[in-house]
Design brief:
Number of helices: 62
Radius of gyration: 45 Å
Shape: extended
Helix content: 55-70%
Number of strands: 4
Length: 1298
């Protein structure tokens, strides 16, 4: 029996349904295939059959291999083949032989779908096969020209519409590849044939042939040269194509419109060197569109007008200036009809014109300005959503294009647009407010921002473009009035963009706005504080804090009577946005203010006012936090830094609370403020003052209650300052530091701190100083103090890391000494020093040549063992060094495979050493296999895999873990064909693992088995593994099936249709860490990779319009020039609000009414169920989805059912009656409280629900033995209802008579 299920969406409309009364018919009435088969079975073929005895004999010989065809055969065989060539050819040919072996790539599209079930497609295949055979029979080479000639001949001969459509389709494909001279020469004959077919098929019911013929004609016209368009016949043919753009059938109309667009836009001569500005047929096309629009413009539906407007949307940018003007006038005339769809299409046409950014030959600036002025007469109502959105977008593009064509003219039109768009902020629709805001922002960025430098300084009395900018700002500034309070967030966004674009040049006209913003910020319960802060911050960034504080002073001087500080919010805003300003302003304004506030705080602290003192101390600290922003690309470093340097040095040394801020400011100044050479030299001049202070601070011990963060900040500042310090000064500091290190009186903390400073100084010293430094730190490389040894290696690492300069020269000249030192210190290297030591070796190995191969050979054992270091950094450096050594061998040897083989020979001995060495060697080989996967030979990889499989027999977990990791990487890296040879070896090695190993590495083994099952199938892997693994394999297969099933369901739900699922492929990790990561989320990763396609529902716009009446008793004046705004595409009036009745609503709209006790019980039950649901229940649910129920799930289900029954039964057992299981008290009958005491039936009770009859749901009712009893209850219920209905009916009749 087939499983009944729901049909996929859309399938019900395609399936045939039983007619009424015929649902029991066993066989369908239509059996055409049986009839056809029966007719052929009982009748002889009328023609001569190709199935002869000789043909069958030849077929058998070909199948057995005794007869072979080829050019290298003996002459006798060739003669035998020549005796019956036709017989052999006809017996092996089919009706599609010409299609399947067609050599022309033009018809690849047909060949890919030649097995389609479509009748039209089969006809195309048959025609192509026939034409191919004809060309071959005449000795053709199957070129596009030959196919063109053959198909044109065929088109004149065919009679059926299906064959004509097939020939036209093939012609449409081949015409695009036919050489242009051929089509130019044959234009007359070809166009005549096409025109005859078009006239014959114009009124036919079939559209396929006409559609493809129109496409062929468009291709033919597109291939003609410029000279051909001077002949009347070419224009006549083109007008024939143009006439179909208003055809009633959509497919034909769309094909004609596409063809016209391709001719005007894509003709070959339009891309030549001396191409004309416009196509020769552009003028006639524009006249045709205008004529058709005027002819049908007054009709009610205006279908032809809509078709022409759709065509103009694509063609308007291709017309010359005169035609664009005429078309624009026509568009504006049809917009006066107040037809919603016509107006929308006209707006789309204007939008495409402006968006295309045509040249002056198509759209001059004057015409652009005239269109903008005319469109103001068609401003939709602010309550009309869609038309207003379209109008705003069109005007935005129009102004951007006008400014592009002529700056001053475009800027002159912007104030009116800003005024109109600002009124749109009063719209009740949030989409209109958002669209108006975005349009104004885009206009500011595209039209105003690029020209502000040329406009210059803007004042209130400016003229020309400056005056326009001032008017635009006043229009936006008006949005701060109360009537725009609903759109204040959008107004603040506009002001922010205005400040960013024009703040530097137009700040005189913006000061009043800044004052308004500050007053608005102080208003109680202001909801847009963040947006206002961003707007003021944009003003700070563009105008500078000096201008902003002139407009809105801080009003803080340290002598305040109250502690309100209403404008203290400006300090965080300035801190977050200040940049590219004068550093001298901080010195002149903020430093004295901070000093006075600090003194006031100290005075208050001495007076005992600790709260007030803390407030002033916080204010002065906030002022100091402005300094990093002032140091970001300042404009006067060379002139102002000398006045600030002494104060900064004092703050660093004497003010621990400001130390971090000042250090950050110095780093910012050096990295972002010293781009000019003069600025760099000025800051570098004070290095001799700042660096000793910083050195002393770093050498001071950290108190127990302090954090080490300030020391790190000081060290980072030292490193940054050293990048601009003179080398002579660095050498002096380095010499003093070396003396401090060698001083026996120095404590361990001091020595370590000085070594940190040496690490920072070393990259900036000259070669002589580095040589002396090397002599100083060399003894410490073997020090027993681990910290000192690590710092010494860090110094050496910084020296070796120099890519060029003194450090690189020192390494090159002392290479032998460095090699000897590093090898001698190998035995005394502590674990913390391994990371910098390996980093040194990486830098040195990069510079080695072939004669240093022995040094690398000596390093291999140490590097292999370091792959198991405790430090993560040491392990990473060890693997990086292994890879770098491999690259070194590749440099040494010309043959890559031989070089890697020589390198691997150095690692192989580790496989037979101690257990730790074996594990580390396998890890090293694993990383090398991944890194050099494309360079290792296949034999090398296979040999490695065999050796590692042997090591799986080890009784050490560490070795087995490394071996499993190698196999996992090999399964990803190796080709499937090569890996298949060793599947048996790998599976046998895994199958011999002990029970302890198998339990310990069960997750790793599961991942491995999953990969191999995906690559080679379940049966193969199962057959190679012993019985104890089969349960795991079955579980993996179930999990894969479940994941595949879920993917299919999700995909079907998203796409709404059933698609054939592809076999999931395992993605290869980008890094070795991703491959070796043991994770169980591979299925979820694959599900994430399969992304469902988003459904796009095309909504057809309804051609409905509403007329908005006048306010109050005022009649609607149809002669008003703004009456067009009364025609709305959106229904006017307040929107319906959903009534809140206090009850929950289900998905289908029903009310959910619960008592309070029921709600509490249901909520507690849900929480309890969700809290107790664990992994076992989830797994059981998934297994039930697959149709497999485990015993645990059945037990859980019975427990749950028992719990449900317990909820229905009495909480305690009461014995009594005639039997021990018989309850004494009868169960209450539902609805008994409504039963009347004296009369029959039920009665209504005040304050309670109306009575109703029902039978309670109980799972015991499903018992088949109690079926009759349940039916009796239903019958009794229905009879009682009928009796009550009759009695009530009689009583009503009696009352009516009386």
């Amino acid at each position: 029996m087939g499983r009944s299920g729901k049909l996929p969406s859309g399938a019900s409309a395609k399936c045939k349904r039983w007619k009424k009364g015929h649902s029991s018919d066993s066989n369908p009435a239509i059996c055409r295939h049986r009839q056809a088969a029966r007719s052929r079975f009982f009748s002889r073929p009328s023609g001569k059959s190709d199935l002869t005895v000789d043909a069958v004999k030849l077929h058998n010989e070909l199948q057995s291999g005794s007869l072979r065809l080829g050019k290298s055969e003996a002459p006798e065989t060739a003669m035998e083949e020549e005796e019956a060539p036709a017989l052999t050819e006809r017996s092996s040919a089919t009706f599609l032989s010409g299609l399947s072996d067609c050599t022309n790539v033009t018809f690849n599209k047909v060949q890919r779908f030649w097995e389609s079930n479509s009748a039209a497609h089969k006809e195309i295949c048959a025609v192509l096969a026939a034409v191919t055979e004809v060309i071959r029979s005449q000795g053709g080479k199957e070129t596009e020209t030959e196919y063109f000639a053959a198909l044109m001949t065929t088109m004149e001969a065919v009679g059926s519409p299906e064959s004509l459509a097939a020939v036209a389709y093939l012609l449409n494909l081949v015409l695009k590849r036919v050489p242009s001279p051929v089509l130019t020469k044959k234009f007359s004959d070809t166009s005549k044939a096409f025109m005859e077919i078009m006239s014959a098929q114009a009124s036919s019911g079939s559209t396929s042939a006409l559609r493809w013929v129109l496409s062929c004609l468009a291709t033919l016209l597109r291939k003609q040269d410029l000279e051909a368009w001077g002949y009347p016949v070419t224009l006549q043919v083109y007008h024939g194509l143009l006439s179909f753009t208003v055809h009633t059938k959509p497919k034909i109309r769309k094909a004609a419109q596409h063809g016209v667009c391709s001719v005007l836009k894509g003709s070959e001569f339009m891309f030549a060197e001396k191409a004309p500005a416009h196509h020769p047929a552009a003028i006639s096309t524009a006249k045709f569109c205008i004529q058709e629009i005027e002819k049908s413009g007054g009709s009610r539906e205006a279908t032809t007008t809509l078709h022409m407007l759709t065509l103009l949307k694509d063609l308007l940018p291709c017309f010359p200036e005169g035609m664009v003007k005429s078309c624009s006038e026509t568009l504006l005339r049809v917009m006066t009809l107040s037809h919603v769809l016509v107006t929308a299409c006209a707006m789309q046409a204007f939008h495409s014109l402006f968006h295309a950014k045509p040249g002056l030959g198509t759209l001059p600036a004057e015409l652009n300005a005239q269109i903008i002025t005319a469109l103001y007469d068609y401003v939709p109502s602010e309550n009309d959503l869609q038309p207003l959105l379209a109008w705003l977008k069109v005007m935005e593009k129009a102004h951007i294009n006008l400014v592009r064509l002529q700056r001053d003219l475009g800027l002159g039109h912007l104030p009116r647009f800003f005024g109109t768009a600002t009124t749109c902020l009063l719209s009740p629709h949030s989409q209109v407010v958002t669209a108006a805001t975005q349009s104004l922002q885009e206009v500011l960025k595209e039209c105003v921002a690029p020209h502000m430098a040329d406009i210059g300084f803007v004042t209130s009395s400016a003229s020309g473009p400056g005056q326009c900018v001032a008017k635009m700002f006043r229009a936006v500034e008006e949005g701060l009035t109360y009537k725009f309070h609903a759109a204040w967030s959008s107004v603040l966004q506009l002001l922010r963009v205005f400040f960013e674009v024009c703040g530097r040049q137009a700040h005189p006209v913006m000061k009043k706005c800044l004052q308004s913003l500050c007053d608005l910020r102080l208003s109680p319960h202001f909801p847009h504080t963040a947006a206002l802060d961003q707007a003021v911050g944009a003003a700070v960034a563009s105008m500078g804090p000096e201008v902003v504080l002139q407009a809105v002073p801080l009003e803080i001087d340290g002598s305040e009577e109250t502690l309100d500080f209403p404008r203290s919010w400006l300090l965080p805003v300035i801190r977050d946005h200040v940049q590219e300003t004068r550093l001298g302003f901080f010195t002149a304004y903020f430093l004295p203010l901070a000093t006075s506030l600090k003194n006031r705080a100290l005075d208050l602290a001495q007076a005992g006012s600790m709260v007030e003192s803390k407030i002033y101390d916080t204010l002065q600290w906030q002022i100091w936090t402005l300094l990093p922003g002032f140091c970001t690309r300042p404009t006067d470093v060379a002139a102002s830094f000398k006045g600030l340097a002494r104060t900064l040095g004092t703050a660093i040394s004497e003010r621990p609370d400001l130390r971090g801020t000042v250090c950050q400011a110095l780093r910012t100044l050096i990295t972002k403020g010293c781009e000019a050479e003069a600025d760099r030299a000025e800051v570098s001049r004070f290095a001799k003052n700042f660096l000793p202070i910083l050195f002393n601070l770093y050498g001071q011990p950290v108190a127990a209650e302090d954090t080490p963060a300030p020391r790190r900040a000081v060290l980072e500042t030292i490193k940054t300052y050293l990048t601009i310090t003179e080398p002579q000064l660095v050498n002096g500091f380095l010499e003093k530091a070396s003396e401090k290190v060698l001083d026996p009186a120095s404590s361990d903390f001091t020595r370590l701190s000085v070594l940190d400073l040496v690490v920072a100084l070393a990259p900036h010293a000259d070669e002589a100083a580095i040589s002396n430094l090397y002599s100083t730190i060399r003894p410490y490389l073997e020090s027993k103090a681990h910290g000192v040894q690590k710092k010494a290696y860090r110094v050496l690492e910084e020296v070796c890391a120099s890519p060029q300069g003194p450090g690189a020269r020192f390494v090159q000249s002392h290479l032998d000494d460095l090699k000897k030192t590093l090898l001698d210190s190998l035995r005394t290297t502590s674990s913390p020093a391994k990371r910098p030591r390996l980093k040194c070796l990486i830098h040195i190995v990069k510079k080695l040549t072939a004669e240093h191969e022995e040094f690398i050979t000596a390093l291999v054992p140490e590097v292999i063992l370091c792959t198991k270091e405790v430090s993560v950094g040491a392990r990473k450096n060890a693997f990086a060094l292994l890879v770098e050594m491999g690259h070194a061998f590749l440099r040494f040897c010309p043959s890559q495979e031989e070089a890697l083989q020589r390198y691997l020979v150095l690692i192989y001995p580790g496989l037979v050493g101690a257990v730790t060495m074996v594990s580390c060697s396998i890890l090293a080989l694993t990383h090398l296999l991944f890194e050099f996967k494309g360079l290792m030979g296949t034999s090398t990889v296979e040999q490695l895999l065999k050796n590692v499989c042997l090591l799986l027999a080890s009784r050490t977990r560490d070795v087995v873990k490394s071996a499993l990791g190698f196999i996992k990487v090999a399964s990803v890296v190796m080709d499937v064909a090569h890996l298949a040879k060793h599947v048996q070896l790998v599976m046998e090695a895994i199958g011999k693992l002990s029970d302890d190993m198998r339990r310990h590495f069960r997750m790793k083994l599961r991942n491995l088995f999953t990969k191999f099952i995906r690559k080679f199938g379940f049966e193969l892997v199962k057959g190679l593994l012993p019985q104890e693994y089969h349960k795991v394999l079955v579980n993996i297969r179930k999990a894969e099936t479940r994941a595949k099933r879920h993917r299919a369901l999700n995909q079907a739900a998203e796409e709404g249709e059933e698609e054939e699922e592809e076999e999931p492929t395992q993605g290869k990790g980008d890094s070795i860490e991703e491959i070796l990561a043991d994770s169980e989320d591979e299925d979820s990763e694959e599900e994430d990779r399969i992304r469902g396609k988003e459904q796009r529902k095309l909504t057809r716009q309804r051609s409905q319009a509403w007329l908005k009446e006048g306010g109050g008793d005022e009649p609607l004046n149809f002669l008003d020039p703004k009456v067009a705004q009364r025609v709305l595409a959106t229904q006017p009036g307040p929107g319906r609000k959903r009534k809140n009745h206090g009850f929950k609503v289900s998905t289908d709209g029903r009310l959910i009414i619960q008592e309070e006790e029921e709600e509490d019980a249901a909520a507690s039950k849900v929480e309890e169920e969700e809290g107790t649901k664990g992994e076992d229940e989830e797994m059981a649910d998934l297994m039930e989805d697959l149709g497999v129920r485990s015993k645990k799930h059945q037990k859980f289900k019975h427990q749950k059912e028992a719990d449900d029954e317990d909820l229905e039964m009495a909480p305690q057992y009461q014995a009594g009656g005639s039997g021990i299981h018989r309850p004494v008290a009868k169960r209450p009958i539902p609805g008994a409280e409504y039963k009347a005491k004296k009369a029959k039936g039920d009665v209504k009770k005040k304050g309670r629900l109306d009575p109703y009859a029902y039978i309670p749901l109980n799972r015991t009712k499903l018992n088949r033995r109690k079926k009759m009893k349940l039916q009796g209850q239903f019958k009794g219920l229905v009879k009682a209802a009928q009796r009550g209905s009759k009695v009530g009916h009689k009583l009503r009749r009696k009352d009516h008579r009386s």
